[in-house]
Amino acid sequence: MKRLLITGAAGNLGKLARARLGHMAEVLRLSDIGPMDPAAGPQEEIVQCDLGDEAAVMDLVADCDGILHLGGYSVEGPWKDIQTANITGVYNLYEAARAHGMPRILFASSNHAIGYHTQDKVLTVEDPMKPDGLYGVSKCFGEAMASLYHSKFGQETAIVRIGSCFEKPADRRMLCTWMSPDDFIHLIECTFRVPMLGCPIIWGVSDNDEGWWDTRTARLIGWRARDNSEIFRAEIEAAAPCPPADAPESLYHGGKFTAEPIHK
C-alpha cells in the first residue's frame, strides 16, 4: 500500500500496530484524538483527529489505501462519549471511505458485542449479537455499518471481534479470550493482502485449548492463529483464584462487563 491509516494510534493496539506494520505501506498515517509520539521519520504522518468531526475525518481518510480502525471509546462509559466516538465516528469514517475510493477497512469490533451469551455455548458468527453494555451496543452498530456499506456500495471490511489482546492473559477468563500480539499482527497482514475480502466476521482470538468461539471464518482470509494461552495456565491459576460459579466472569462471554452499570 502507498498509505495505511491507523486510527487509535495512541492506544495499546495502535502502538503495537505502529511499531510492527511499517512493512505494509510506504507511509503510516497515525491518528488519535490525544497526543502521539512525533513521527519517527518520513514513513510516518501524525494527524490528530476527533472522529466526531465529520470534516476532519473526511480529510484524514484522503489518499489512504487501507484503514486499520482501532480508534474510538474502548471501555464502558457515558453514552455521550461512546456515541461521539463509536457511533458518529464510525458513520464519519465509512462516509469518508466511500468518498475516497473505498479503501479496505479492518474494523476492530469486540467480544462485548456478544458478551451476554453464556459460556456453555460455542458461538459461530451466525449467532445473534447480545451486547453486554453500551460499549458493546456501539460495536454492534459498527458491525451493522460495515455490513450496510458492503451490501450497498461494495465497501470491504474485516469485522474482527477482538477478545483480549495483551502480551499474556491477565486472568482465567483470558485463557479463553486471549489473542497474542503476533497473531493480531498476522491477522492484519492477511486482511490487507487477501485478493478478495468481502465483509467477514472474524473472531480475534489465538488458538487456545479452551475457547468459546468457532474461528473457521478466519480461514477465508488465510489466517490461522499460531499461539496458545495454555502456556500461561499454571501461572494464571496460581495467581488468580477461581471466581465463584455464579460470578459474571464465570457465566458470560463478556465477563465483568455484564455487571457494569449504565454510566451517566
TrEMBL record:
User: What family, per the record?
Assistant: Belongs to the NAD(P)-dependent epimerase/dehydratase family.
GO-annotated molecular function: uronate dehydrogenase activity
* A Pfam family of this chain: Epimerase
What EC number(s) has UniProt assigned to this enzyme?
1.1.1.203
Q: What class of enzyme is it?
A: oxidoreductase
Please tell me whether the keyword NAD is annotated for this protein: yes
Gene3D superfamilies given for it?
Answer: NAD(P)-binding Rossmann-like Domain
Protein's organism? Pseudooceanicola algae
Gene label? udh
Entry protein name:
Uronate dehydrogenase
Q: Which UniProt keywords apply?
A: NAD, Oxidoreductase, Plasmid
